[in-house]
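Work Package 3 committed the consortium to producing structural models of liganded targets before the mid-term review. Because experimental data for this complex are still outstanding, the team generated a predictive model from sequence and the ligand definition alone, so that downstream docking and mutagenesis planning could proceed in parallel. The input record is reproduced below exactly as it was submitted to the modelling pipeline, together with the SMILES string for magnesium ion.
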Amino acid sequence: MIISVVNGKGGVGKSTVAINLAGSLSRENGKVLLVDADPQGTASGWLKAREEQPAERVPRNGLRVTPEPWGASDLADKISAEAREMDFVVIDCGPANGKIERAALALSDFAIIPVTPSPYDIRSAKTTVDLIREGREEAGVRVKAFLLISRKVVGTSLGRDVRDALQVFDLPILKAEICHRVALCEAGIVGQTIHEYEPGSLAAEEFDILAKEVLKWRKQN
Ligand SMILES: Nc1ncnc2c1ncn2[C@@H]1O[C@H](COP(=O)(O)OP(=O)(O)OP(=O)(O)O)[C@@H](O)[C@H]1O
Ligand SMILES: [Mg+2]
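The resulting structure, written out as tokens with the ligand in place, is given here.
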């Protein structure tokens, strides 16, 4: 199963979601490849920090990460062969709606669009939703897209209202919600997943809920 994490708006939590979803899926469900498809190199930078950690902090499991960002042609050339060897491929897209994102979406079974509970960010997500619709209508792209509430600040009206506000896109909204939690940022800096950095935390639980929803897709597929 190939899953793109995509939203042309910067800073909505794509890389945080891609890294920790890949981490959560790899814990019990075999081989996962996290593809850095952002020229900024966030996921591959995370891998470099990870490689500097002592082995006990980053247990060896089925998680692999591309050591360098892949462009559109790398995706097209390499992903099918990689996907055959993997249970899941998670693609971390960059803050754009361009060639790389189109290539990623064309190759994906599912897309997760993280959206933060801000009216500006909700409006900006429209460009990505339109990109997916265009791909479906004009290029026969078969990706199934889901919105994911990301960086929600608990106890705020924006956080409470976001689910209603997202109805405007007429796309399914994942039940999982990823709240704004400092541990996610800290874990990213040291190259760990949230399960490695703060096992049993609320943030780790939120990613378990997300991973369960993704595993259900596999059963339905
Ligand atoms: N749920 C969260 N809780 C706390 N901090 C978060 C959360 N999600 C993201 N962040 C922080 O916000 C910043 C942007 O997050 P991230 O890099 O995941 O976003 P992005 O959408 O991948 O950005 P870009 O568009 O630049 O690729 C980072 O510093 C990250 O640590
Ligand atoms: Mg990113």
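Reviewers should note the following from the model. Strands lie at 2-5, 32-37, 63-65, 88-93, 110-115, 144-152, 173-179. These observations will guide the Year 2 experiments.
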